[in-house]
Design a protein that fits this description.
Elements lengths: L1 E5 L1 H4 L7 E3 L4 H9 L3 H7 L10 E5 L2 E2 L15 E6 L5
Helix pairs in contact: 2-3
């Protein structure tokens, strides 16, 4: 199972403790996590299932390339880091 880690900033907005997800793509792992945390889905993905603009995901130290279908491969030993992008001035 891949370990899914959410930044503290994201945790301020909703409950999203470290989770484990089964799957061989980012999409599959996230959907496994969403089964236990349904509210998280709409915060991370739009109504088409694409990653929202304010969210970034890394697999270990590699930025996810496919933000639309989330088909980047994930191995069972990987760590998936979910970030909320910050902006301001």
């Amino acid at each position: 199972m891949a370990r899914v880690i959410f930044t503290e900033n994201l945790q301020r907005h909703l409950s999203c403790p470290v989770a484990c997800g089964v799957g061989d793509t980012v999409s599959a792992v996230l959907h496994d996590v969403f089964r236990d945390n349904a509210g998280l889905r709409s915060y991370l993905l739009d109504d088409q299932g694409r990653l929202r603009q304010h969210v970034s995901i890394y697999i270990n130290d590699r930025l996810v390339a496919d933000r639309e279908r989330l088909t980047d491969p994930v191995a069972a030993a990987d760590e998936v880091f979910v970030f909320q992008a910050l902006s301001g001035g």
